[in-house]
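pinging the channel bc i need a second pair of eyes. not urgent but kinda urgent?? the chain im working w is below, pasted from the shared doc
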Amino acid sequence: MGKYTFKGKAAVSLAAIAALTLTGCASVGGGDDSKGGGDSSAAGKDGGVVTVAETNKFSGANAGYTKTNLDINGHVAAMTREGFANVDTEQKLHPNEGFGTYKKVSDDPLTVEYELKDTQWSDGNKIDKADMMLWWSELSGYANDADEEAKTGKDYFSIAGSTDILHTTDMPKFSEDGKKMTVTWGKPNADWEIAFDSNSFMPAHVVAKKAGMSEDELLKVLENQKKGDPKSPQKQPELEKIGKAWDTAFNFTSTPDDKDVLVSNGPYKIENVVENNSITLKKNENYKGSMPGKLDEITLRTIGDATAQIQALRNGEVDIMQPNNVNKDTLDQVQQIENVNVQKGDQLAYDHLDLNFGSDTFKDKDVREAFLKTVPRQKIVDQLIKPVKDDASVLNSQMYVSSQEEPYKKATEVNGAEKMYGEPDIEGAKKLLGGKTPTVRILFNNGNPQRTDTFQLIKESAEKAGFKVQDLGDPNWSEKLSDGDYDASLFGWVSPGVGTEMLSQIFKTGGGGNYSKYSNKDVDKLVDEARTNLDESKRVDQIAEIDKHTFEDAYGLPLFQSVGYVATSDKISGVDKYQPNQTGVFWNVSEWSRK
């Protein structure tokens, strides 16, 4: 549970909520009613099959990797990966003692002891010291020595989030049997409880094989890795092999010949992948945790169009749908289907327009400000969101969504967003342009009607000020986001619900999700301070200051908080509480059953 994710076909995993996905917290939620789960045992029975409609195409089993940090991959991870903690529907953490335990043994220095239970991978291999060392190595960036400005050194693992939680930790110490790991921090960290993101937890024995070595050899390389120093980068070729294997071995879009990459430690395991169509998971018979799956099989079907999802639900071809974007027509249609239960709520997700600081067009701050002055945010909300949510409003923070009431209020009092970028100011934009007519190429998902409509409204308004707006709409937009060959991007982030990793992931220089190439030394300093600040009130103040900088720098504009719903056939039990974070309906997948 770390990064923000890309939100569905249209969005990308908020400050008070950890790392973003391009629509991922990976661990499976669950538990009794006190933890937010429902008691479905009386209403359902073990066995059976459930089919879920998904907007995106599956692209890889490592949802922690930069290029596969997509919502559907995170949903698969929610069923196939477990870690030390889960997040309930109130965004509260609960230890997952079926996997292991953790406890803080010292505040100064911050020291945490992790202990594995008798857990194993689905192929029977025990989860052991090598797995833990690999997990720590990639999430801590211990050996990383890349210098962005000097273009020297290397980051060994391409993780979608940041290494800020664990980056001050020393090499872990292990008990003789390898089950107990002690981690000591060099500085306090507010997010220490979510340091180990299960999205990124990959089997060391498989990574070792893909790197051309044994698991023992992999462990030796990890234990002997040198601490990275950007001022004096060193080549570590064996570690580079491991990093490359972690990055690439689990990327597949159809059933791979090598079944090693399908290994799971969650209640379900990947059985079959039909390219661009579906992914089927079956019960993990070798599961050793405390939340075994009840169903025999779960299939995720890729159905990009919400109307087609509704038709599939109506026909009984799918049992559950949770579209990434909601409009009045689709919501009305779903609510009219008999024998279907609908849960509706605000997502911990938001749509936004980001400007690319690496593009020639937006190197000039005046041009950035001019473009943002043309964005008709209220019109976008009125036409696209208010028909679904009467009290929807323009989002005026990059850090918080409207439903996070107190932090959001504090941020908007400080950041000046409404004053700077309220109603469109075409004349003000023309004045800043001084007769120039820049071309702005906007990348977005043109397979998503809401994104397409947003693009058109932005284009019409910007062209009144003299901009030439070019359509770079592409159904494979997320694969192009990190390439930087565009001037602006239009998408959404969805949060895992806990932590502050998004600060480093998106807004810090060189962050794993900083696709805009945004860099502000004051922001970098504030990010570091906020992430080590244990005082929540003061941390919110620091985050509000970061928010203020993004608007003053003309970083881009938040548009609106996303509205969501889950529609479920009444033949399915256990899907009874709305989960607004990036795990969505899969948060308690082990509790699902069929009536």
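so The longest helix spans residues 536-552. and The radius of gyration is 23 Å. — does that match what u expected or am i reading it wrong
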